[in-house]
Amino acid sequence: MLITKTNYTNYRISFRFSVRNGNCMVYPFDVKTKEELTNTSITPNGFYLDLAKSRYLDINIKKEVLKEGAEGLSEDVRFNAPAKDGNKYTSEGIYTISVKNKYTDQQTEKKIYVGDDNLLKAYMTTGLSIREIQNQVKNGAEINDDGTIVTVSKQALSPTSSKPEEVSEIKTKAASTAKAEPPADVETISKQVQETPEGDNSVFILIGTGCFILIAAVSAALIVIMKSRKKTDADK
Questions:
Q1: Is 75 within the bounds of a domain?
Q2: What is the CATH number of the domain that holds 56?
């Protein structure tokens, strides 16, 4: 029957509805420091999940560890299961957190490493496979604490010069400086002459004057003796 104002004076229409959060985010926090961990973060303490009151998210966590096999170490999935708000994860491994909002079909993924193994740090930080990282280590590469890899070519460079061109430039400058510098003896003599005090020069002048007077007196005495001899000879 059609409802109109003439046959019904009061009526009610009911319906159901729900409000859903369109957010598609999960926030991992360090268990010990309580600091938020971003994607590819490394923590030795473990982490817990905070969904920021988003109740309609599908969360899944996958854990990977290193396992010894026939071909050496390889990554192995230990569990892949749903998670919920407040879950804690403290055992060593690489955790992949996958979040999906079934109402918006948006997805978010984060990776967190729990532990101190440099090989797993490099595996998560660089994106290389375990075998590729092991090959680089065999060839002399080193893994830093933050998971970055230092190759042999970078280690071969001088700590004070990051480029071969800079090394050759330094050698050229050293050679030109050596040519321009005077011999050590000449430099020492000139320095001694410059540093001679004025009192020493006056002593040299007095000695020279005394020698000149002595020579003049000896010459005058010789002249007088010669004249006296000539006079004696003339008298004879």
A1: yes
A2: 2.60.40
